[in-house]
Amino acid sequence: MSSLLKLTAAEARLFVRDPTSLVIGLLLPTVILVGLGAVPILREPSADMGGVRFVDYFAPSVIVMSVAVIGLTTLPAVMAGYRERGVLRRMRTTPAHPAKLLVAQLIVNVAAALASALLVVVAGRLAYGVPLPQNPLGFALAFVLGITAVFAIGMLVAAVAGTARAASGISTVLFMSVMFFGGVYLPRFMLPDAVARVGDYVPPGVQTLLDSWNGESPDPVQLLAMAAIAVAAGAASARIFKWE
Amino acid sequence: MAIIEVEDLVKHYGEQRAANGVSFTVDEGEIFGILGPNGAGKTTTVECVEGLRTRDAGRVSVMGLDPARDVKELRQVLGIQLQESRLPDRMRVGEALDLYRSFYRSPADPGRLIESLGLGAKRKTPFGKLSGGQQQRLSIALALIGNPRVAVLDELTTGLDPQARRDTWDLIEQVRDSGVTIVLVTHFMDEAERLCDRLAVIDAGKVVAVDTPAGLTARVSAEQRVRFRPSADFPDALLLDLPEVAAVERNGSQVVVAGSGNLLQAVASVLARSHIVAADLRVEQVSLDDAFVALTGKPVES
């Protein structure tokens, strides 16, 4: 147990020392939300968004970004880099299984995604009065399932990518898709209806975040879809993960 | 006393047999070298001993443990230094040792280890900022942090400059003197000759010889050569009459005498009796390199 604690502490130190993961993963989503909110018209209620302000409507998409950057870019790149550099192989020569390193990485990155999302919620609230999630329980459930699904997909990339370069190639495609369907590039009301409907089922499930944020119940089918993706991708990555 | 026993080890990849009946034993407290050309099966053999690969047939015992079955226990007592295994660039020397230390039941004192490896001043330096030699020393430190009784070191000095190589060799001798049995995989002859008490030469998945470095060279040929520049001319017969001398060649002003036994003594006394001074006198013996080529039919360098 103490070796897992040590590993987690070591991985957390490395995360904090890496300016890219720190700035892009932890701060960028909040910076984007705060930057957009600085434009006065985006703080006016709009009929396009059912009478809410753009900043309110867009906040869940920024959370998608928090989760996607860390789960789909940072995590697979670090794990593939560890495979490429022989860090996993070196772990195999010790009494600690490299799976412990993976668990430590997951703990650190999930914590970072949580911190990043929390920062978005708090900054939105303080800067522009974006209401806190109105259905906190539903929001927590949607967030947990969404983040699990995204991280499971990130793990699947980490399971097979032989080099950090290969990992970032695969993750970039996935990342762009998640961001697109999550309404980060174009607000979702501007997307064709069919695309937006597909987006409901693309992790981390932006609609479930939006609904629960607005105080509604997240759609159970969408939540189930996230759980199914999480289980399928997680099981597949556990089966095929290459430990060296 | 044998601390590692390998008997008829077989490992194949598909049709290809990387290890095809490898047998040797390593005695406690020695530096045992595994020498062979690239692709000879050195690394495969060692990985089966380390429990990083599962053998197809044969028997392996390390301190009475079977690497295929008792891998958990083996990890506690066997230190492994891998070829080309790095650390995250931003991890510091002290942090790495502290982390890897936590994996073992009764680890070594990291402070003393760091000092004995000459990394005392580098405790706070990140891995990425270390020189190649320092990274290699840290890698050795990590292989020793668990206080192992046996350490397997693979291609230890590849990529190091000559000074760093010599420092590393001194270090390995210190480690052995502290009671650790060392298995050294190498393709450098000078390294094997300098460090190893005994060597196994592996070729095409088989052990072709196990002996001391001197024993291996003697096995191949007992021939020696003496070279010198004589102060005055003399007939070849003067030396050819000696029983130790097999041949005399002249190379400009230089004379090369080939023979065996106490060749130098015999040649020097005949020359002295004839009042000839031998300048630039040199004795050449068969090197481990020559022995290796004779045993495997190919040079060891990749």
TrEMBL record, chain A:
Q: How does it sit in the membrane?
A: Multi-pass membrane protein
Enumerate the InterPro entries for this protein.
ABC-2_transporter (IPR052902), ABC2_TM (IPR013525)
* Record's keyword terms, sorted: Membrane, Transmembrane, Transmembrane helix
Transmembrane helix in keyword set: yes
Q: Which GO terms describe its molecular function?
A: ABC-type transporter activity
All residue ranges annotated as the ABC-2 type transporter transmembrane domain in the record: 7-192
Give the chief site where it resides.
membrane
One Gene Ontology cellular component annotation?
Answer: membrane
Top-level division of the source organism's lineage:
Bacteria
Q: Where in the cell is it found?
A: Membrane
Pfam families attached to this UniProt entry: ABC2_membrane (PF01061)
Q: Where are the transmembrane segments?
A: 21-42, 62-82, 102-127, 139-161, 173-191, 221-241
Q: Which residues form the signal peptide?
A: none
Q: Does the keyword Isomerase apply?
A: no
Can you name this protein?
A: ABC-2 type transport system permease protein
Q: Give the organism, scientific name.
A: Glycomyces artemisiae
From TrEMBL, chain B:
Q: Where is the ABC transporter domain?
A: 4-229
Say which domain of life the source belongs to: Bacteria
Q: Where in the cell is it found?
A: Cell membrane
Which SMART domains does the UniProt entry name for this protein?
AAA
Keywords tagged on the record: Antibiotic resistance, ATP-binding, Cell membrane, Membrane, Nucleotide-binding, Translocase, Transport
- Does this UniProt record's set of keywords contain Cytoplasm? no
Statement: the UniProt record of this protein carries the keyword Transit peptide: no
Q: Report the record's Gene Ontology biological process terms.
A: response to antibiotic
Q: Its GO CC terms?
A: plasma membrane
- Topology versus the membrane: Peripheral membrane protein
Q: Name one GO molecular function term.
A: ATP binding
The entry's protein name is ABC-2 type transport system ATP-binding protein
Please name the source species.
Glycomyces artemisiae
